[in-house]
Amino acid sequence: MKKIIPPVLFVICIVIMVGLWLVFPIMQFLTFPISLVGILPFIAGLGIAKRGSDIFKKTGTNIETFDDPNILVTDGLYRISRNPMYLGFLVALLGVAIMLGNFSSILVVIGFFVITDRWYIRFEEVAMAKTFGEQYAEYKAKTRRWL
Hints:
Layout: H1 6-23, H2 39-59, H3 84-100, H4 103-142
């Protein structure tokens, strides 16, 4: 799992969602054209993820999940969520699930959330605590993991 970085997992999830929609669509809950409302969270989610990434680039910190952190970013979207990039990916995947309009897609969104929350974020939190100590503990105490 260490070789699959979050943006790659995001794309893999979209491919799985479309594949399940084509092959094994469980319980269709939205149909075209109503399902097009999913475009809004998809675009918003990508925007949130991009903005989170841009903040990292602007501050010059490491964006790679499995590399050591070098700057603790707490400004912008990071005042609201400790993980706006993951949050953005999750919202975008929810948008795809709405566009596809079936329950099997929702299962993939839940899978992405669990993998991200239990694997990527936990890994990063350990690294952040080790690198930034009390400063990270204070940030963690006042800023939620997701929202």
